[in-house]
Please model this.
Amino acid sequence: MTHTVLIVDDSLTVRMDLAEAFEVAGFRPLLCGTVADARALVRREWISIAILDVLLPDGDGVELLQELKTNTKTAEAPVLMLSSEADVKDRIRGLQTGADDYVGKPYDTGSVVARARELVHARLPPSLERDAVLVVDDSPTFRDELRRALEGAGYVVFTAASGEEGLRAAATHRPTALLVDGVMPGIDGATVIRKIRLDAALRGTPCILLTASDDRGEELRALDAGADAFVRKDEDLEVVLARLGAVLRRASNESADGSALHAPKRVLVVDDSETYLQVIASVLRSDGYDVVMARSGEEALEMLAVQTVDCILLDLVMPGLSGKDTCRQIKSTPNLRDLPLIIVTSIEDRHAMIEGLTLGADDFIAKSSDLDVIKARVRAQIRRKQFEDAHRRIREELLRSQLEATEARSARQLAEARAALVESKAKMAEELERKNKELEAFSYSVSHDLRGPLRSIHGFSHLLLEDYANVLDADGRDYLLHVRAAAQRMSDIIDDLLLLSRVSRAELRRAPTDLAEIARNVAAELQNRHPDRTVELAISEGLVADADYRLMRVVFDNLIGNAWKFTAKTPEARIELGVMETERDGDGNAVFFVRDNGAGFDMTYAQKLFQPFQRLHTEEEFSGTGIGLATVQRVVDRHGGRVWAKGEVGRGATVFFTIPRDERGGSR
Amino acid sequence: MTRNHGILLVDDNKSDVELARRAFQRAHPTGWIAVARDGEEALDYLFATGAHTGRDSTIVPEVVLLDLKLPKLDGHQVLRRMRADERTKRIPVVVLSSSAERQDVLTSYELGANSFVRKPVDFTDFLDLARLLAAYWLVANEPVDGG
Model:
């Protein structure tokens, strides 16, 4: 899209000059000579950016700025103020009112356009797919040599034979990098680079200075001017290419930081002498600096409050706030104290110099000094500041990387600790697995090998009784019966222990299970085995639990089996299976129960019921191994439920249990 | 065909062998019972090799009662070899084991056992079992002629 630039200046020359430059840059310029014209235009047109002169025939640019900033139609448009350096107050006023930048007159058309483009974020012409390199050198031979080498390496190459031509070419082609000869007639390489650094649109372009000599001074000047690298011409062209590659890589890596480094240097000159201000300004401008002039210490401080600078040249003797006081104030203001400050004075005595330096000034120059000395001092101070900044950045970077390293280290330690935990868990699981295997092997041999001898004991006492009954008296036969019964009992204990171990290890497979059906099956089998018994069964329908069928079968084998056994001496035996109508356990789970009207038990011993081998009746009263209820508890436990019992001697017993839903949400 | 009413009992426990012998004599007095004390001997008997070289191998027991825990070759290995050989693959095998561990039962059937029975501790129960096995395998069941 085309951006519209509003240019308000009473000078026709300025208007035409800027209009031409903006048109070339792809903007649509709207030109006004007065505030009134500008107001009328703004009502009709949408503007992308405004360039405002401060002094206008029918009003004040800063007031116009205020109007633009408060008008919703124009409030978002950036504003660039143009003003003669005489109006420092206007500069301050403008920046305070909301101007985005301030360019002093006389201005450089290129940098105004570049700055404007930056402010509207105008799209730059689509960049070339290959990196374009601009070679600026006055030697045709070397130019051609370099061009061939660069083109061979895949670069697009533009050439210029002088500094001036080079700057124009840079503006036109916007190369991705610049190779410039250090020594040329007209503007030299260092100046070309400094001017590139001044151009908002070009300042990020990596620059490499080429030189024929071994002169360290030239190298310093080049780096001072903002060159990214320095290559001697007599070095192999491969070296040039390598340097170029490195510089381009770096540029793409840190373009954000780089542009700040290459921003044009702004120097604040504080002096009550208009003549001296003009002289210094023109000298510094010719060296590529943006110069801001303040006519008093007060003005300087006001100025510094709204816009920062890179170096301050401060006259020591001024009316009003003295140079000393100004210096003291600057040096005691936190964001300003690091700015390089050079004291300039005509008083050439040691005392003044020492005093100035005591106040915190960074350098001291006499007004009578050669202008080149002043330039050099300014350059040196700015460079020092740059080094310090770079140093600080590096230190911060280092600190950050150390912090990151520490963080990474603790993250690694955490990860290692976690891994160790996982590993130890895995080891424990492995150990458990191994123990389970051992237990299984043990159970196997118990069931297999303990039963063998029992079979022999039982079998041969049986044969003795049968075949040799006539040689044994009644006591002998009775003893043999005891031997046989003991073997049978031990076999039962082995079976029950195996079952207990099996229900503890078996995989839990939960599914909706009809408890009533299991109970009926168990009862039917018991009836088969004891056809002479008459037991009334009251089994509720629809007792469904989220349980393992095989394990619940074990539960009812024991519960119904117990009820069956303990009602053996009850005339009207009754066994009931149901669910409590109103009562729930603490977690809201249904409470199932198996009730009988048999022998019952003493509640004093209710705790012992579920412990293995605990029996509340003698073997003569009711047989049993005392493992059954422990097995029931184990199964209910594995389902996450609870089991308890109530009873009364001679009036029956009730066993209650809960089977909560599977918490893991797998099966219902 | 003529029935020989023979049983091959494979068991290494002397007492168990004695009890079984007594039980089967009582259950089926006209039958005979051969005993092998380990897996290797069981195969030697069946194939008339080793210590049983020269035995008339046309006399094939009508049922093999096979314990699982045996010296040398165990019961499952014997069963595998029997089922892999043309001469013995059709002989009924009843596994007679001290335990009825699920895995043992599964493996036995997978290897081609015809039945799996747990040896009861109570000798009265064992006598009942012997009667049941004899009545079924030596009388009711129809073997393939010549094994």
About this structure: Chain B has one domain: 6-106+113-139. The mean pLDDT of chain B is 90. The first strand of chain B starts at residue 6 and ends at 10.
